[in-house]
Amino acid sequence: MTTTFVGAEVYLPHGIEATNVTIDDGKIVAIGGPEQGETVDARGKILAPALIDVHGDAFERQLMPRPGVFFPTDAAVLDTDRQLAANGIATAYHAITLGWEPGLRDVARGKELMQAIQNLAPRLLVENRVQLRWETFAFEAVEVIDWALQAPLTPSLAFNDHTSMTMRAYDVPIQERGFELSPDFSIASLDDARMKARTASKAKRAGLSDTDYIALLAKVWERRADVPHLIAEMAAKGRAAGAPMLSHDDTRAETRAYFRGLGAGVAEFPMVIEAAQAARENGDMIIFGSPNAARGGSHIGSLGAGDMVEAGLCDVLASDYFYPAMLAAVARLDAEKRADRSTLWRLVSSGPAKAMNLSDRGDIALGKRADLVLVDWPEGEAPAILGTWVAGRCAYLTRPAVTSVGTVAKAKAEPVLCDH
Hints:
Layout: E1 3-12, E2 15-24, E3 27-31, E4 38-41, E5 46-49, E6 51-56, H1 59-63, H2 73-86, E7 89-98, H3 107-120, E8 127-135, H4 142-150, E9 156-160, H5 162-167, H6 194-206, H7 210-221, H8 227-241, E10 245-248, H9 253-261, E11 266-268, H10 273-281, E12 285-289, H11 290-295, H12 305-310, E13 316-318, H13 325-335, H14 341-346, H15 350-355, E14 372-376, E15 384-390, E16 393-397
Parallel strand pairs: 1-4, 1-5, 6-7, 7-8, 8-9, 9-10, 10-11, 11-12, 12-13
Antiparallel strand pairs: 1-2, 2-3, 5-14, 14-15, 15-16
């Protein structure tokens, strides 16, 4: 089906201009030129590349809407998918934690979720992918990662070490901890009463008592000497599978260099300027969280995403834990004049595409996949997604109660564009 978006303010790779965009057979076939096929009246609206989310774990709220209360996995996946479409996200990497904890982030639960995504793919509105958010002390996750790298999930692989983060000395803020695999890493005592306070939320998430969680942590910590070898082994598997690889929460240039050497060319949420600058100086892609940007700063006192965007130290904004944050972050950074709109939009489109090696999408350009969003963004107001197209297929379309000219929309027979 050939469709032309007529008269939109189009976000093109070289800038923004009012023009027509025509799509056919899932791709962008014309920019400018006459109307062809069905038309979408996009005058007064923005037509932009659809959002690409490289790290989002808001799906956990659908899996466990209340602490310890689990919801059926298929229903959670379907609802999450609809949320993604409504927020303009055409490609999403679900950050599925594969760790050593039981409960929400249990390895078996992670595999069940990935299998559900795979099984439900024909019924989903957007492209649901997977980030294998591997806790490097989780030896029990190896078999599942091996399976996922060979399954049709096209995953990325992220190296996380919240175990060492938890075990850092009590007088060391998380942003100041050293390279986790260094023999000089400063370690806390498990017998200290402060460990219960540090692990209380983790214990609750895992469904364990404070005492049982700390006992399990102690057992897992005994694996530390074998962790570097396993990291190297898993990185080799990731490289062989062609999976984009990321390191998470870096606090040292040494940390970034270590993972870069293993083929992980993406720094996800670096926590200090040293790590961000080391990534930039070596050509690594840099990801920050959209909630950080949308709220005006990190909720844990790490680097401010807005500051990093302005400093040229951010290539990608991810939803992190809240899907609407991606559009809200662009809006706030635009209001703060951190960069021009074209640059800001690239943080949620072509930047993520480059980080994940998705050369077929992320821009409105001839031959690219027609992943598009139609956006209503009145001057001085919050932007809103009106429609989301995935490979030319309308995945989401809304009709506001009031039209752009201020009249109440009438219920009359009109073409339903999402039938295309």
